[in-house]
Write a structure and sequence with these properties.
The protein has about 130 residues and is α+β, with helices and mostly antiparallel strands. The protein has one domain. The chain contains four helices and four strands. Strands 3-2-1-4 form a four-stranded antiparallel β-sheet. Strand 2 (about 105-110) and strand 3 form a beta hairpin. Helix 1 crosses helix 3 and helix 1 crosses helix 4. The N and C termini lie far apart (about 30 Å).
Length: about 130
């Protein structure tokens, strides 16, 4: 498969996954989202992580930042986790909080092993509360 075709297909998959994740966050109860995020891949593929993680992370961030999408951190992490799970890669969805002046802020990020692949730019400020997967 040519690189342009691969990237176009990955962009379409990321857009669909982000739209579904945004809908899930808005419409589904938290318990269903947590149960879904904690599921392991059906057919684990330990070699796919090296190939799939970087392009998926890049494409989810690129599509999530588009003006028509503007996905927050939780839908981005859920979408990337779904795309990785589809390829047999197990990842960990993490939720954390931080205090910003007099307000409490929350953030979600996705980890693959010890590496943060989605939401990593803001992650160091936040204290991990829980992780799924």
């Amino acid at each position: 498969m040519k690189r342009r075709v691969f990237e176009r297909n990955l962009m379409i998959e990321a857009a669909v996954a982000l739209m579904l994740a945004r809908l899930a966050v808005r419409l589904l109860p938290t318990e269903r989202i947590v149960a879904w995020a904690g599921r392991p891949p059906r057919r684990p593929d330990r070699f796919a992580a090296a190939v799939a993680a970087e392009p998926i992370s890049r494409m989810v961030d690129r599509v999530g930042a588009r003006p028509w999408m503007q996905a927050a951190c939780l839908p981005r992490a859920l979408a990337a986790q779904a795309m990785l799970r589809r390829r047999g890669v197990a990842s960990r969805l993490c939720l954390g909080t931080a205090r910003e002046s007099d307000k409490l802020a929350a953030h979600a990020w996705l980890e693959l092993g010890d590496e943060v692949i989605v939401g990593g730019t803001e992650q160091p400020r936040f204290t991990r509360l829980v992780s799924f997967g």
